[in-house]
Amino acid sequence: MAFKDMREYLSLLEKEGQLKHVDTPINCEYEINELQSLMRYLAETNGPGLVLNNLEGYNTPDVPILYNPFGTRERTAMTLGERDPLTAKLKHSAVLADQATWQEPVLIDAKGAPCKEVVIEEADIALDKQLPHVWIGKEGSSFVTGAVVVSKDPETGVRNVGWYRLTQLWQCRHPTDGSYTDEQQTKQLSIFAFWNPPMNHIGLHLAKAKAMGKPLEVAVAKLCDPAVHLAACTGTPFGADEYAFAGGLRGSPVELVKCDTVDLEVPATAEWVIEGVFQPDADDVTIGWHSNSVGYYDKLQIFPVFDVKRITHRKDPLWYATIEMMPPFDHNWLALLPVEGEVLSDLQRKIPEVNDVVVTPNMTYIVQLKVDGAQKPHPEFGKFVLHAVWGAAGRWGRTAKFVVVVGPDINPYDMTDVDFAIGSRVQPYEDSIINQSGQAFVLDPSAVKGPQGFPMTGSQIGIDATIKIPERFSDYAPVSKADPEKVAAIAEKLKGVLG
Ligand SMILES: Cc1cc2nc3c(=O)[nH]c(=O)nc-3n(C[C@H](O)[C@H](O)[C@H](O)COP(=O)(O)O)c2cc1C
Q1: Which of 5, 145, 324, 351 is most exposed by smallest CB count within 10 Å?
Q2: Are residues 192 and 278 in the same domain?
Protein backbone atom coordinates (compact mmCIF):
# COMPACT_ATOMS: atom_id res chain seq x y z
CA MET A 1 0.00 0.00 0.00
CA ALA A 2 1.24 3.46 -0.84
CA PHE A 3 0.57 6.56 1.22
CA LYS A 4 0.23 9.69 -0.88
CA ASP A 5 1.76 11.80 1.86
CA MET A 6 2.39 11.93 5.60
CA ARG A 7 -1.23 13.03 6.14
CA GLU A 8 -2.62 9.76 4.77
CA TYR A 9 -0.40 7.80 7.15
CA LEU A 10 -1.56 10.01 10.04
CA SER A 11 -5.22 9.48 9.07
CA LEU A 12 -4.70 5.74 9.29
CA LEU A 13 -3.14 6.15 12.75
CA GLU A 14 -6.04 8.32 13.83
CA LYS A 15 -8.61 5.82 12.56
CA GLU A 16 -6.93 3.16 14.67
CA GLY A 17 -6.76 5.30 17.79
CA GLN A 18 -2.99 5.69 17.48
CA LEU A 19 -3.00 9.45 16.90
CA LYS A 20 -4.71 11.97 19.14
CA HIS A 21 -5.24 15.73 19.04
CA VAL A 22 -4.20 17.59 22.19
CA ASP A 23 -5.89 20.91 22.86
CA THR A 24 -4.56 21.25 26.41
CA PRO A 25 -2.01 24.09 26.50
CA ILE A 26 1.57 22.81 26.87
CA ASN A 27 4.40 25.23 27.32
CA CYS A 28 7.63 24.39 25.53
CA GLU A 29 9.60 27.44 26.49
CA TYR A 30 13.34 27.30 26.58
CA GLU A 31 14.61 24.79 29.21
CA ILE A 32 11.14 24.08 30.57
CA ASN A 33 11.50 20.42 29.52
CA GLU A 34 7.80 19.78 29.03
CA LEU A 35 8.24 18.10 25.66
CA GLN A 36 11.10 15.92 26.81
CA SER A 37 8.98 14.71 29.74
CA LEU A 38 6.10 14.04 27.37
CA MET A 39 8.36 12.00 25.08
CA ARG A 40 9.57 9.93 28.04
CA TYR A 41 6.00 9.22 29.11
CA LEU A 42 4.92 8.26 25.59
CA ALA A 43 7.98 6.03 25.16
CA GLU A 44 7.35 4.25 28.46
CA THR A 45 3.69 3.63 27.73
CA ASN A 46 3.83 2.88 23.97
CA GLY A 47 1.76 6.04 23.73
CA PRO A 48 0.01 7.41 20.65
CA GLY A 49 1.19 9.97 18.13
CA LEU A 50 -0.03 13.45 18.99
CA VAL A 51 -0.97 16.62 17.17
CA LEU A 52 -0.30 19.43 19.64
CA ASN A 53 -2.79 22.14 18.74
CA ASN A 54 -2.10 24.37 21.69
CA LEU A 55 1.63 24.39 22.17
CA GLU A 56 2.84 27.63 23.72
CA GLY A 57 6.15 29.39 23.95
CA TYR A 58 7.21 29.27 20.31
CA ASN A 59 7.10 31.68 17.42
CA THR A 60 4.38 30.25 15.12
CA PRO A 61 1.56 29.05 17.42
CA ASP A 62 -0.85 28.66 14.48
CA VAL A 63 1.18 25.77 13.11
CA PRO A 64 0.20 22.47 14.82
CA ILE A 65 3.06 20.29 15.97
CA LEU A 66 3.18 16.59 15.14
CA TYR A 67 4.70 14.59 17.97
CA ASN A 68 5.65 10.91 18.41
CA PRO A 69 4.07 9.59 15.16
CA PHE A 70 6.44 6.62 14.84
CA GLY A 71 6.73 5.68 18.54
CA THR A 72 6.34 1.87 18.37
CA ARG A 73 7.67 -0.98 16.25
CA GLU A 74 4.13 -1.62 15.01
CA ARG A 75 3.61 1.98 13.85
CA THR A 76 6.96 1.83 12.08
CA ALA A 77 5.88 -1.37 10.27
CA MET A 78 2.68 0.48 9.32
CA THR A 79 4.71 2.99 7.29
CA LEU A 80 5.22 0.06 4.88
CA GLY A 81 1.60 -1.11 5.08
CA GLU A 82 2.47 -3.93 7.50
CA ARG A 83 1.92 -4.66 11.21
CA ASP A 84 4.48 -7.28 12.03
CA PRO A 85 8.02 -5.91 12.42
CA LEU A 86 9.71 -8.92 10.79
CA THR A 87 7.38 -8.82 7.76
CA ALA A 88 8.07 -5.10 7.31
CA LYS A 89 11.79 -5.69 7.67
CA LEU A 90 11.80 -8.53 5.15
CA LYS A 91 9.92 -6.33 2.69
CA HIS A 92 12.44 -3.52 3.20
CA SER A 93 15.46 -5.81 2.90
CA ALA A 94 14.12 -7.63 -0.21
CA VAL A 95 13.48 -4.35 -2.06
CA LEU A 96 16.84 -2.98 -0.95
CA ALA A 97 18.66 -6.05 -2.30
CA ASP A 98 16.94 -6.08 -5.69
CA GLN A 99 17.14 -2.84 -7.66
CA ALA A 100 14.90 -4.39 -10.33
CA THR A 101 12.02 -3.80 -7.89
CA TRP A 102 12.80 -0.08 -7.55
CA GLN A 103 10.57 2.37 -9.37
CA GLU A 104 11.89 5.53 -10.95
CA PRO A 105 10.22 8.70 -9.62
CA VAL A 106 8.03 10.79 -11.93
CA LEU A 107 8.13 14.57 -12.34
CA ILE A 108 4.83 16.40 -12.05
CA ASP A 109 3.90 19.98 -12.85
CA ALA A 110 4.44 22.52 -10.08
CA LYS A 111 0.77 23.57 -10.34
CA GLY A 112 -0.31 20.23 -8.91
CA ALA A 113 2.24 20.22 -6.09
CA PRO A 114 0.78 20.87 -2.61
CA CYS A 115 4.26 21.75 -1.30
CA LYS A 116 4.19 24.93 -3.44
CA GLU A 117 0.90 26.37 -2.22
CA VAL A 118 2.69 29.14 -0.33
CA VAL A 119 5.94 30.65 -1.64
CA ILE A 120 8.39 32.80 0.34
CA GLU A 121 10.99 34.32 -1.94
CA GLU A 122 14.62 35.02 -1.07
CA ALA A 123 14.12 38.74 -0.43
CA ASP A 124 11.43 37.95 2.17
CA ILE A 125 13.25 35.17 4.05
CA ALA A 126 13.07 35.76 7.81
CA LEU A 127 13.60 32.39 9.46
CA ASP A 128 12.77 33.77 12.90
CA LYS A 129 9.19 34.31 11.70
CA GLN A 130 8.66 31.64 9.06
CA LEU A 131 9.97 28.37 10.50
CA PRO A 132 8.60 27.09 13.82
CA HIS A 133 11.21 27.16 16.58
CA VAL A 134 10.34 24.52 19.13
CA TRP A 135 12.94 24.07 21.84
CA ILE A 136 13.07 20.78 23.71
CA GLY A 137 14.91 19.80 26.88
CA LYS A 138 18.31 21.45 27.41
CA GLU A 139 19.02 21.69 23.70
CA GLY A 140 20.85 24.88 22.70
CA SER A 141 18.87 25.22 19.52
CA SER A 142 15.61 24.41 17.86
CA PHE A 143 16.29 21.77 15.24
CA VAL A 144 14.56 20.96 11.96
CA THR A 145 13.74 17.27 12.20
CA GLY A 146 11.76 14.91 9.99
CA ALA A 147 13.18 16.32 6.78
CA VAL A 148 14.96 14.62 3.90
CA VAL A 149 17.84 16.51 2.33
CA VAL A 150 18.54 16.39 -1.40
CA SER A 151 21.83 17.26 -3.12
CA LYS A 152 23.71 16.22 -6.24
CA ASP A 153 27.27 14.97 -6.60
CA PRO A 154 29.19 18.00 -7.94
CA GLU A 155 31.30 15.72 -10.16
CA THR A 156 28.70 13.34 -11.58
CA GLY A 157 25.38 15.14 -11.01
CA VAL A 158 24.00 11.98 -9.35
CA ARG A 159 21.37 12.72 -6.68
CA ASN A 160 21.41 11.76 -2.99
CA VAL A 161 18.53 11.92 -0.54
CA GLY A 162 19.42 11.50 3.14
CA TRP A 163 17.63 12.07 6.42
CA TYR A 164 19.74 14.57 8.32
CA ARG A 165 18.93 16.99 11.11
CA LEU A 166 19.23 20.75 10.61
CA THR A 167 20.02 23.41 13.19
CA GLN A 168 18.17 26.72 13.31
CA LEU A 169 20.51 29.46 14.45
CA TRP A 170 17.89 31.97 15.52
CA GLN A 171 18.32 32.64 19.26
CA CYS A 172 20.57 29.59 19.34
CA ARG A 173 22.62 29.39 22.53
CA HIS A 174 26.31 29.30 21.53
CA PRO A 175 28.08 26.48 23.38
CA THR A 176 31.34 28.41 23.88
CA ASP A 177 29.80 31.83 24.50
CA GLY A 178 30.31 32.97 20.92
CA SER A 179 27.45 34.40 18.90
CA TYR A 180 25.68 34.03 15.58
CA THR A 181 25.32 36.95 13.17
CA ASP A 182 21.88 38.31 12.22
CA GLU A 183 22.42 36.86 8.74
CA GLN A 184 23.07 33.40 10.23
CA GLN A 185 20.06 33.65 12.53
CA THR A 186 17.53 34.77 9.95
CA LYS A 187 18.78 33.55 6.57
CA GLN A 188 20.96 30.50 7.12
CA LEU A 189 20.59 26.96 8.43
CA SER A 190 23.14 24.35 9.37
CA ILE A 191 22.97 20.64 8.49
CA PHE A 192 24.43 17.68 10.39
CA ALA A 193 26.50 16.94 7.29
CA PHE A 194 29.72 15.41 8.51
CA TRP A 195 32.05 16.47 5.67
CA ASN A 196 35.53 16.63 7.17
CA PRO A 197 36.11 13.70 6.93
CA PRO A 198 32.88 12.73 5.10
CA MET A 199 30.72 10.43 7.24
CA ASN A 200 27.51 10.54 5.19
CA HIS A 201 26.67 11.00 1.53
CA ILE A 202 25.87 14.70 1.70
CA GLY A 203 29.22 15.04 3.47
CA LEU A 204 30.88 13.45 0.43
CA HIS A 205 29.10 15.92 -1.87
CA LEU A 206 30.13 18.84 0.28
CA ALA A 207 33.76 17.72 0.58
CA LYS A 208 33.95 17.41 -3.21
CA ALA A 209 32.28 20.79 -3.80
CA LYS A 210 34.65 22.49 -1.35
CA ALA A 211 37.68 20.88 -3.02
CA MET A 212 36.41 22.07 -6.41
CA GLY A 213 35.63 25.57 -5.06
CA LYS A 214 32.00 25.17 -6.20
CA PRO A 215 28.73 25.94 -4.39
CA LEU A 216 26.53 22.98 -3.48
CA GLU A 217 22.77 23.28 -3.92
CA VAL A 218 20.50 21.69 -1.38
CA ALA A 219 16.76 21.11 -0.94
CA VAL A 220 15.12 20.11 2.33
CA ALA A 221 11.69 18.41 2.17
CA LYS A 222 9.92 18.13 5.50
CA LEU A 223 7.20 15.54 6.22
CA CYS A 224 6.80 13.50 3.02
CA ASP A 225 5.21 10.12 2.40
CA PRO A 226 6.80 7.89 5.11
CA ALA A 227 8.35 5.57 2.47
CA VAL A 228 10.51 8.50 1.34
CA HIS A 229 11.74 8.96 4.90
CA LEU A 230 12.50 5.27 5.30
CA ALA A 231 14.43 5.25 2.03
CA ALA A 232 16.34 8.38 3.02
CA CYS A 233 17.53 6.87 6.29
CA THR A 234 18.60 3.60 4.67
CA GLY A 235 22.27 3.19 3.79
CA THR A 236 21.73 2.70 0.06
CA PRO A 237 24.95 2.45 -1.97
CA PHE A 238 26.55 5.80 -2.83
CA GLY A 239 25.07 6.86 -6.18
CA ALA A 240 21.84 4.83 -5.83
CA ASP A 241 18.67 6.94 -5.97
CA GLU A 242 16.70 6.83 -2.71
CA TYR A 243 13.59 8.11 -4.51
CA ALA A 244 13.65 5.01 -6.77
CA PHE A 245 14.14 2.82 -3.69
CA ALA A 246 11.17 4.57 -2.04
CA GLY A 247 9.14 3.82 -5.20
CA GLY A 248 9.98 0.14 -4.75
CA LEU A 249 8.99 0.25 -1.07
CA ARG A 250 5.62 1.91 -1.76
CA GLY A 251 4.94 -0.08 -4.94
CA SER A 252 4.45 3.00 -7.11
CA PRO A 253 6.66 5.91 -8.17
CA VAL A 254 7.26 8.90 -5.92
CA GLU A 255 5.91 12.09 -7.49
CA LEU A 256 8.53 14.80 -7.58
CA VAL A 257 8.43 18.46 -8.44
CA LYS A 258 11.30 20.68 -9.54
CA CYS A 259 12.61 23.27 -7.12
CA ASP A 260 12.49 26.89 -8.25
CA THR A 261 15.91 28.28 -7.30
CA VAL A 262 18.07 25.13 -7.35
CA ASP A 263 18.40 22.26 -9.85
CA LEU A 264 16.91 19.65 -7.51
CA GLU A 265 13.66 17.70 -7.12
CA VAL A 266 11.52 17.19 -4.01
CA PRO A 267 8.43 15.07 -3.21
CA ALA A 268 5.41 17.08 -4.37
CA THR A 269 3.38 16.28 -1.26
CA ALA A 270 5.94 17.46 1.31
CA GLU A 271 4.63 19.83 3.98
CA TRP A 272 7.63 22.19 3.65
CA VAL A 273 10.48 22.71 1.19
CA ILE A 274 13.56 24.80 1.93
CA GLU A 275 15.89 25.52 -0.99
CA GLY A 276 19.43 26.77 -0.48
CA VAL A 277 23.11 26.85 -1.39
CA PHE A 278 26.30 26.02 0.52
CA GLN A 279 29.00 28.48 -0.48
CA PRO A 280 32.44 26.86 -0.80
CA ASP A 281 34.23 29.43 1.35
CA ALA A 282 31.61 29.70 4.14
CA ASP A 283 32.89 28.91 7.62
CA ASP A 284 31.32 26.07 9.56
CA VAL A 285 29.43 26.96 12.75
CA THR A 286 29.80 25.55 16.24
CA ILE A 287 26.54 24.38 17.76
CA GLY A 288 25.38 22.62 20.92
CA TRP A 289 23.92 21.30 23.09
CA HIS A 290 22.18 18.66 21.06
CA SER A 291 20.44 15.67 22.64
CA ASN A 292 21.56 12.67 20.60
CA SER A 293 20.22 9.22 19.77
CA VAL A 294 22.51 7.40 22.20
CA GLY A 295 21.03 9.37 25.09
CA TYR A 296 23.59 12.10 25.81
CA TYR A 297 23.88 15.79 25.09
CA ASP A 298 26.60 16.59 22.56
CA LYS A 299 27.97 19.79 24.03
CA LEU A 300 29.65 20.98 20.88
CA GLN A 301 29.59 20.06 17.21
CA ILE A 302 30.86 21.78 14.08
CA PHE A 303 28.70 21.79 10.97
CA PRO A 304 28.38 23.67 7.65
CA VAL A 305 25.78 26.37 6.91
CA PHE A 306 23.84 27.17 3.77
CA ASP A 307 22.01 30.28 2.55
CA VAL A 308 18.25 29.83 2.33
CA LYS A 309 17.01 30.88 -1.13
CA ARG A 310 13.33 30.03 -0.93
CA ILE A 311 10.76 28.40 1.34
CA THR A 312 7.55 26.84 0.07
CA HIS A 313 4.90 25.07 2.11
CA ARG A 314 1.32 23.89 2.17
CA LYS A 315 -1.44 26.36 3.04
CA ASP A 316 -2.04 24.79 6.45
CA PRO A 317 1.27 23.08 7.11
CA LEU A 318 2.09 20.66 9.88
CA TRP A 319 5.42 20.83 11.66
CA TYR A 320 7.16 17.88 13.27
CA ALA A 321 9.18 18.25 16.48
CA THR A 322 10.98 15.47 18.27
CA ILE A 323 13.86 14.84 20.61
CA GLU A 324 16.42 12.12 20.62
CA MET A 325 17.34 11.18 24.16
CA MET A 326 18.03 8.18 26.36
CA PRO A 327 16.30 5.51 24.21
CA PRO A 328 13.67 4.67 23.37
CA PHE A 329 12.06 7.71 21.79
CA ASP A 330 9.75 8.37 18.84
CA HIS A 331 11.79 8.00 15.64
CA ASN A 332 14.16 5.52 17.29
CA TRP A 333 11.98 2.77 15.84
CA LEU A 334 11.74 4.30 12.41
CA ALA A 335 15.50 4.71 12.31
CA LEU A 336 16.08 1.11 13.43
CA LEU A 337 13.93 -0.56 10.75
CA PRO A 338 16.29 0.48 7.91
CA VAL A 339 19.35 -0.39 9.99
CA GLU A 340 17.91 -3.86 10.60
CA GLY A 341 16.72 -4.18 6.99
CA GLU A 342 20.12 -3.13 5.68
CA VAL A 343 22.04 -5.73 7.71
CA LEU A 344 19.38 -8.44 7.24
CA SER A 345 19.39 -7.89 3.48
CA ASP A 346 23.15 -8.38 3.30
CA LEU A 347 23.31 -11.35 5.71
CA GLN A 348 20.41 -13.30 4.21
CA ARG A 349 21.91 -13.15 0.76
CA LYS A 350 25.11 -14.70 2.07
CA ILE A 351 23.81 -16.82 4.95
CA PRO A 352 20.32 -18.31 4.40
CA GLU A 353 20.30 -19.59 8.00
CA VAL A 354 19.80 -16.00 9.23
CA ASN A 355 16.15 -15.44 10.23
CA ASP A 356 16.04 -11.94 11.71
CA VAL A 357 18.22 -9.04 12.77
CA VAL A 358 16.95 -6.94 15.66
CA VAL A 359 18.73 -3.78 16.72
CA THR A 360 17.75 -2.57 20.17
CA PRO A 361 17.16 1.13 20.82
CA ASN A 362 20.63 1.15 22.41
CA MET A 363 22.11 -0.35 19.25
CA THR A 364 22.87 -3.90 20.37
CA TYR A 365 22.55 -6.14 17.32
CA ILE A 366 20.79 -9.50 17.84
CA VAL A 367 21.03 -11.96 14.95
CA GLN A 368 18.52 -14.78 15.18
CA LEU A 369 19.34 -17.96 13.23
CA LYS A 370 16.89 -20.53 11.87
CA VAL A 371 19.16 -23.30 13.18
CA ASP A 372 21.06 -24.11 16.35
CA GLY A 373 23.17 -26.89 17.89
CA ALA A 374 23.55 -29.91 15.63
CA GLN A 375 21.69 -28.24 12.72
CA LYS A 376 24.37 -25.56 12.36
CA PRO A 377 26.16 -26.03 9.04
CA HIS A 378 29.60 -26.15 10.64
CA PRO A 379 31.30 -25.76 14.03
CA GLU A 380 31.86 -22.16 15.17
CA PHE A 381 29.08 -21.07 12.79
CA GLY A 382 27.97 -18.37 15.26
CA LYS A 383 31.39 -16.71 15.01
CA PHE A 384 31.22 -16.79 11.23
CA VAL A 385 27.93 -14.85 11.48
CA LEU A 386 29.53 -12.30 13.86
CA HIS A 387 32.26 -11.54 11.32
CA ALA A 388 29.64 -11.25 8.57
CA VAL A 389 27.81 -8.50 10.53
CA TRP A 390 30.99 -6.40 10.76
CA GLY A 391 31.66 -7.02 7.08
CA ALA A 392 28.10 -6.32 5.90
CA ALA A 393 27.45 -3.81 3.13
CA GLY A 394 26.09 -0.38 4.05
CA ARG A 395 26.69 2.11 6.79
CA TRP A 396 25.63 0.20 9.86
CA GLY A 397 26.98 -3.35 10.28
CA ARG A 398 30.54 -2.10 10.48
CA THR A 399 29.69 0.07 13.50
CA ALA A 400 27.90 -2.69 15.47
CA LYS A 401 29.56 -2.45 18.90
CA PHE A 402 27.71 -5.33 20.58
CA VAL A 403 26.49 -8.26 18.47
CA VAL A 404 24.81 -11.38 19.82
CA VAL A 405 23.96 -14.44 17.71
CA VAL A 406 21.09 -16.60 19.03
CA GLY A 407 19.18 -19.70 17.96
CA PRO A 408 15.55 -19.91 16.78
CA ASP A 409 14.08 -20.57 20.25
CA ILE A 410 15.27 -17.18 21.52
CA ASN A 411 12.99 -14.21 20.91
CA PRO A 412 15.32 -11.49 19.61
CA TYR A 413 12.84 -8.73 20.55
CA ASP A 414 12.93 -9.79 24.21
CA MET A 415 16.16 -8.92 26.01
CA THR A 416 15.23 -11.25 28.89
CA ASP A 417 15.31 -14.11 26.40
CA VAL A 418 18.59 -12.90 24.90
CA ASP A 419 20.02 -12.62 28.41
CA PHE A 420 18.94 -16.23 29.02
CA ALA A 421 20.90 -17.37 25.97
CA ILE A 422 23.98 -15.39 26.98
CA GLY A 423 23.78 -16.64 30.54
CA SER A 424 23.32 -20.31 29.71
CA ARG A 425 25.00 -20.91 26.32
CA VAL A 426 28.15 -18.80 26.45
CA GLN A 427 31.60 -19.27 27.86
CA PRO A 428 32.93 -15.72 27.63
CA TYR A 429 36.49 -16.47 26.62
CA GLU A 430 35.69 -19.21 24.11
CA ASP A 431 32.50 -17.77 22.63
CA SER A 432 33.23 -14.10 22.14
CA ILE A 433 35.35 -12.14 19.72
CA ILE A 434 36.85 -8.77 20.51
CA ASN A 435 37.64 -6.64 17.49
CA GLN A 436 40.07 -3.94 18.59
CA SER A 437 39.93 -1.95 15.37
CA GLY A 438 36.27 -1.43 14.59
CA GLN A 439 34.54 1.67 13.27
CA ALA A 440 32.85 3.62 16.04
CA PHE A 441 29.32 4.97 15.76
CA VAL A 442 29.80 8.75 15.40
CA LEU A 443 27.72 9.54 18.49
CA ASP A 444 29.24 6.97 20.86
CA PRO A 445 30.38 9.00 23.90
CA SER A 446 32.56 6.13 25.15
CA ALA A 447 34.84 6.21 22.08
CA VAL A 448 37.63 8.78 21.89
CA LYS A 449 36.72 11.74 19.68
CA GLY A 450 38.84 13.05 16.78
CA PRO A 451 39.53 16.73 16.01
CA GLN A 452 36.11 17.26 14.36
CA GLY A 453 34.33 16.31 17.56
CA PHE A 454 33.23 12.76 16.73
CA PRO A 455 34.88 9.35 17.14
CA MET A 456 35.95 7.21 14.18
CA THR A 457 37.42 4.05 15.69
CA GLY A 458 36.44 1.89 18.63
CA SER A 459 36.42 -1.71 19.75
CA GLN A 460 33.61 -4.20 19.26
CA ILE A 461 32.47 -7.42 20.88
CA GLY A 462 30.57 -10.30 19.35
CA ILE A 463 28.95 -13.02 21.47
CA ASP A 464 28.08 -16.39 20.00
CA ALA A 465 25.07 -17.44 22.12
CA THR A 466 24.21 -20.50 20.07
CA ILE A 467 24.29 -23.98 21.62
CA LYS A 468 27.80 -25.39 21.27
CA ILE A 469 26.96 -28.62 19.51
CA PRO A 470 29.14 -29.86 17.91
CA GLU A 471 31.87 -27.50 19.20
CA ARG A 472 31.93 -28.82 22.79
CA PHE A 473 28.95 -31.09 23.35
CA SER A 474 26.98 -33.83 21.66
CA ASP A 475 23.94 -33.21 23.85
CA TYR A 476 22.55 -30.17 25.78
CA ALA A 477 20.31 -29.93 28.84
CA PRO A 478 16.63 -29.45 27.87
CA VAL A 479 15.14 -26.02 28.53
CA SER A 480 12.63 -25.93 31.38
CA LYS A 481 9.91 -23.69 29.98
CA ALA A 482 6.12 -23.82 29.82
CA ASP A 483 4.47 -24.26 26.41
CA PRO A 484 3.10 -20.80 25.37
CA GLU A 485 -0.22 -22.31 24.25
CA LYS A 486 -0.70 -23.93 27.64
CA VAL A 487 0.25 -20.66 29.34
CA ALA A 488 -2.50 -18.91 27.37
CA ALA A 489 -4.99 -21.70 28.16
CA ILE A 490 -4.45 -21.59 31.92
CA ALA A 491 -4.54 -17.80 31.91
CA GLU A 492 -7.90 -17.96 30.11
CA LYS A 493 -9.26 -20.52 32.58
CA LEU A 494 -8.28 -18.36 35.58
CA LYS A 495 -9.21 -15.06 33.96
CA GLY A 496 -11.85 -14.34 36.57
CA VAL A 497 -9.27 -14.50 39.38
CA LEU A 498 -6.18 -13.19 37.65
CA GLY A 499 -7.90 -10.45 35.68
C1 LIG B 1 15.40 10.93 12.47
C2 LIG B 1 16.75 10.64 11.89
C3 LIG B 1 17.72 11.62 11.94
C4 LIG B 1 18.98 11.38 11.40
N5 LIG B 1 19.90 12.37 11.42
C6 LIG B 1 21.09 12.18 10.85
C7 LIG B 1 22.03 13.25 10.79
O8 LIG B 1 21.74 14.35 11.23
N9 LIG B 1 23.23 13.01 10.21
C10 LIG B 1 23.54 11.76 9.70
O11 LIG B 1 24.65 11.57 9.20
N12 LIG B 1 22.66 10.74 9.75
C13 LIG B 1 21.45 10.93 10.29
N14 LIG B 1 20.56 9.91 10.31
C15 LIG B 1 20.92 8.61 9.74
C16 LIG B 1 20.92 8.71 8.23
O17 LIG B 1 19.67 9.18 7.76
C18 LIG B 1 21.18 7.36 7.56
O19 LIG B 1 22.41 6.86 8.00
C20 LIG B 1 21.19 7.47 6.05
O21 LIG B 1 21.56 6.24 5.50
C22 LIG B 1 22.14 8.53 5.57
O23 LIG B 1 22.04 8.67 4.17
P24 LIG B 1 23.32 8.63 3.29
O25 LIG B 1 23.84 7.22 3.43
O26 LIG B 1 22.78 8.92 1.91
O27 LIG B 1 24.25 9.65 3.80
C28 LIG B 1 19.27 10.13 10.82
C29 LIG B 1 18.29 9.14 10.78
C30 LIG B 1 17.03 9.40 11.29
C31 LIG B 1 15.98 8.34 11.21
Answers
A1: 351
A2: yes
